[in-house]
Write a structure and sequence with these properties.
Blueprint (H helix, E strand, L loop, with lengths): L3 E3 L5 E3 L3 E2 L5 H13 L4 E3 L7 H13 L8 E6 L6 H15 L4 E6 L4 E2 L16 E2 L3 H13 L3 E7 L3 H10 L6 E5 L7 H9 L3 E5 L22 H10 L3 H10 L3 E3 L6 H8 L8 H8 L11 E4 L2 E4 L14
Parallel strand pairs: 3-4, 4-5, 5-6, 6-9, 9-10, 10-11, 11-12
Antiparallel strand pairs: 1-2, 7-8, 13-14
Bound molecules: NADPH dihydro-nicotinamide-adenine-dinucleotide phosphate and butane-2,3-dione.
InterPro entries: AKR (IPR020471), Aldo/ket_reductase_CS (IPR018170), NAD(P)_OxRdtase_dom_sf (IPR036812), NADP_OxRdtase_dom (IPR023210)
Keywords: NADP, Oxidoreductase
Organism: Dimorphilus gyrociliatus
């Protein structure tokens, strides 16, 4: 099985990387160092995670002790408050400073929805409601393209966009998106959106591939626990692998990159150790069959007894389309 994906930009992206959302400042530096020591070649970051500086400290130390910049693939993301054209390049430059590098490998628009412009990551009105904005995706994308032309990033892409939003960019761009980062795991296989991307030459990265058990709102309502699914546990025993490794391998075998987050050295090691076995076609089908079309990363609220997306009325909200 390939350990890398070829991007439309001509660049090569590792198929396994380290996620950094929720990794606390005191922990993320060690997590990144442990990952690099264990041969990770991809670190997934975002301005909004608030920990890029600590990731940058780990990278700086590793560069000083011999790691070459081209040996590590670094992704970061443009936050929702920075979609206006004048904000895109400065925002990328801010991430470069934080991360102690002079270019990114991949820069993604984090979400299709824009928030009110400014330094507040989650701008809210007096009643505590998020303040949205409407910025044309093509305005933002043009500046993403400028980032490539200026050598600030090798590749560009999007995250959390649906197929219609991606098609709009494809129809109006000079540089196509190289990657889509979305939630995908065995309870939320996203087959149609993955097929759409692959047909268009766009590589796909699965976020929350383990079901994001430490998502901030976990436990606020009853939700299925992916890592404890009996089918996955049983296959773990069959292949002498952990449930996490089965979940990651199932994705990688579909040519989908995975970015599991961990700050635990033993898990960081085990999450990369998925290249010495193959899940049989029969077992792949068994994993396919546990799909529940279940999203973990879209907090919901109950309105008049009905479950709705919390941000469902936001402009450009992506998740009402079929895919
Ligand atoms: N573009 C976007 O909008 C989004 C991007 N992302 C990106 O994707 C990354 C991964 O997604 P995330 O939501 O963090 O969730 P994951 O599915 O990666 O789950 C992370 C959790 O699983 C635990 N864990 C890690 N490895 C194992 C293992 N082998 N066995 C059991 N438990 C394990 C971690 O614990 P511990 O750390 O304690 O070891 C942590 O609690 C993010 O960190 C971020 O980089 C995520 C969400 C949205
Ligand atoms: C983790 C993340 O990237 C979110 C929720 O946007």
């Amino acid at each position: 099985m390939a350990k890398t994906l070829k991007l439309l930009s001509g660049e090569v992206m590792p198929i396994v990387g380290l996620g950094t959302w929720k990794s606390k400042p005191g922990e993320v530096e060690n997590a990144v160092k442990t990952a690099i020591d264990n041969n990770y070649k991809l670190i997934d970051c975002a301005y909004a995670y608030g920990n890029e500086e600590e990731v940058g400290r780990a990278l700086k130390e590793k560069f000083q002790s011999g790691l070459k910049r081209q040996e590590v693939f670094i992704t970061s993301k443009l936050w929702n408050t920075r979609h206006h054209k004048e904000d895109v390049i400065p925002s990328l430059k801010e991430s470069l400073t934080n991360l102690n590098v002079d270019y990114l490998d991949l820069f993604l628009i984090h979400w299709p929805t824009a928030f009110k412009q400014g330094r507040e990551n989650f701008p809210k009105d007096d009643e505590g409601n998020l303040i949205y904005d409407k910025v044309c995706h093509l305005e933002t994308w043009k500046q993403m393209e400028e980032c490539v032309k200026l050598g600030l990033t090798k590749s560009i892409g999007v995250s959390n966009f649906n197929s219609k939003q991606i098609q709009n960019i494809l129809d109006n761009c000079s540089i196509k998106p190289a990657n889509l980062q979305i939630e995908i795991h065995a309870y939320f296989g996203q087959k149609k959106l993955v097929d759409f991307c692959h047909k268009n030459g766009i590589t796909v990265t699965a976020y929350s591939p383990l079901g994001s058990p430490d998502r901030p709102w976990a436990g606020t309502r009853e939700e299925p626990i992916l890592l404890k699914d009996p089918v996955i546990e049983k296959l773990g025993q069959k292949y002498s692998k952990t449930p996490g490794q089965i979940l990651l391998k199932w994705l990688a075998q579909r040519n989908i990159a995975v970015i599991p987050k961990s700050v635990t050295p033993s898990r960081i090691q085990q999450n990369l150790n998925i290249f010495d076995f193959t899940i049989s076609d029969e077992d792949v089908k068994i994993i396919d069959s546990i799909d529940k079309n279940y999203r973990y990363i879209a907090p919901v609220v109950e309105v008049n007894g009905k479950i709705e997306f919390r941000d469902g009325k936001a402009p450009d909200f992506p998740f009402y389309e079929e895919f």
